[in-house]
Design brief:
Layout lengths: L1 E4 L2 E4 L5 H19 L12 E4 L4 E4 L4 H6 L14 H10 L1
Antiparallel strand pairs: 1-2, 3-4
C-alpha cells in the first residue's frame, strides 16, 4: 500500500488492523487536501504502522507542510491502492 513519509511516498505491506488504519489515514489526508481541515489527521498524531516487508514501523505524517509538499504524488483515484505484485512489476520495468 502507498504510505507517506517525511521523505515522500513509499510502499508498505501492513497486516491486520494496520491495513485498515492506512486506508483511514488516506481518507483523512484527502479530507485535509479538499477542505484544509486537520480534524481527521489529528487522530494519527504519534501513531505508527508496521511494515511486514521490512519489519520497520513508520509514523503517520500529520505535518500539513509535508502532505502539501508531496500532494502531487497522491492520486486518490481507483488505482491508488496498488497491489504488491503491481508495484514489483513497476519497479522491474523502471
Amino acid at each position: 500500500m502507498p504510505f507517506l513519509t517525511e521523505e515522500g511516498l513509499i510502499y508498505v505491506n501492513p497486516v491486520g488492523n494496520d491495513r485498515n488504519l492506512v486506508g483511514k489515514y488516506w481518507n483523512a489526508a484527502s479530507h485535509f487536501l479538499e477542505t484544509g481541515s486537520t480534524k481527521y489527521l489529528d487522530r494519527f498524531d504519534d501513531r505508527r504502522v508496521w511494515d511486514a516487508e521490512t519489519g520497520r514501523h513508520f509514523a503517520f505524517v500529520t505535518n500539513t507542510r509535508v502532505i502539501l509538499e508531496f500532494h502531487d504524488q497522491l492520486d486518490f483515484g481507483f488505482s491508488f491502492y496498488k497491489s504488491r505484485r503491481e508495484v514489483e512489476t513497476m519497479a522491474r520495468t523502471a
